[in-house]
Amino acid sequence: MAKAIHSMIRVLDEARSVDFYQKAFGLNVAERLEFDSFVLVYLRNAEADFELELTINKGREEPYNLGDGYGHLALCVDDLDAEHARFEAEGLAPRKVVEFERDGALLAKFFFVADPDGYQIEVLQKHGRYV
Questions:
Q1: Distance from the Cα of residue 45 to its chain's centroid
Q2: I need a labelling partner for 10 at 20 to 30 A (CA). Which of 19, 44, 64, 126 fits?
Q3: SS3 category, 16
Q4: Contact assessment for residue 39 and residue 21, using Cβ atoms and an 8 Å cutoff
Q5: 63: closest CA among 8, 112, 121, 118?
């Protein structure tokens, strides 16, 4: 069977993105590979084997057009309210906490935050299928 190993996004500023993902999710550089025209940075934490791959194309100065096809990256946390407060304290501008119900029962509790390049990230409370 296949195993999910990483998701890749293109970013303009390596330092700014690495700083955001470290502050927001405790993701640290697992490996950095430099090539003539681009850099690959793999981020991870001890919580999962899955990595986020940042691709930085050298010489790129204009922001990427995310288009209308990008959805979001999702991560789950033990205490959503505490994380939301921490994001606010870090100046990461999280959106409001939402409780999503189905048939009168809590399906998911979450908030969204945008990274420096505008990618949307859903932060979910560990609950139900998200544990």
A1: 12
A2: 126
A3: helix
A4: no
A5: 118
